[in-house]
Design a protein that fits this description.
- This protein is mostly helical and 225 residues long.
- Among the domains are: 108-142, no CATH class; 193-224, no CATH class.
- The protein has helices spanning 2-45, 50-72, 77-82, 87-98, 109-122, 128-138, 158-178, 195-221.
Length: 225
């Protein structure tokens, strides 16, 4: 009888151990599921082009490190980089470099903004030391998300402000170079606020001038109903 009681106690102990392990595994699975849900929610809140931006940032970091290493060893980084590119890829890059950007002219303001953005991006030369310092200082807020308050996290440097001012001055000089002087008749009434508005008003006058002549005269005399 004692042996039977001992066997039952051992079985009970074994069952309790199994039950305890099951509880531990269940809690562990809950924690993993919670982490997965939080990570998925975080990914949904990121911009749609987040992965492409992250890959580009990682590539810039790797390229900058390789360039510094080549400079320390006294090597020409561009030539060293070409040694690891096959002939087909090198030929494609050479054609791309020689090819000039086509001038599609002005079609709309959106495309003009895109061209301006691409031009500014090509002129960016990132300071990787400042990049790493800001990344370490801000932590997760460095990349930003919908819940991050950016005000006060970043302070513009004088060099960056001067660079922006120089770029704006170049844009103004370029506009003045290509702008045309509009002919102005001093005898005409000024019913516009800028050249674009004046052109629009001339179109209205050309198409609807006769139909609105009486209305305008009444408005000028103050007798319009």
């Amino acid at each position: 009888m004692s042996e039977l009681t001992k066997t039952a106690a051992e079985k009970m102990k074994e069952r309790m151990e199994r039950l305890k392990n099951l509880h531990l595994k269940r809690n562990e699975a809950r924690q993993h599921n919670h982490k997965a849900v939080v990570e998925e929610d975080k990914q949904k809140k990121l911009p749609s082009n987040w992965e492409a931006r992250k890959r580009q940032a990682d590539w810039l970091l790797q390229d900058e490190e390789a360039r510094k290493k080549a400079a320390e060893e006294g090597l020409d980084y561009d030539r060293t980089k070409l040694l690891h590119i096959d002939a087909t890829e090198a030929e494609r890059l050479a054609r791309k470099k020689k090819k000039t950007a086509p001038n599609d002219g002005f079609s709309d303001f959106e495309q003009a903004t895109v061209r301006q953005y691409n031009r500014l991006v090509k002129g960016i030369k990132p300071n990787m030391e400042s990049y790493e310092e800001a990344k370490e200082k801000l932590g997760p807020a460095f990349y930003g998300d919908p819940n991050t308050i950016l005000h006060g996290l970043h302070k513009d440097k004088k060099e960056a402000i001067d660079k922006m001012v120089d770029d704006l001055e170049k844009q103004c000089a370029k506009r003045e170079k290509y702008s045309r002087r509009r002919r102005h008749n001093d005898d005409e009434d000024i019913d516009y606020i800028n050249d674009r508005n004046a052109k629009f008003n001339r179109k209205l006058e050309r198409f609807y001038g006769e139909q609105t002549k009486v209305i305008k005269e009444n408005l000028e005399r103050g007798t319009a109903i």
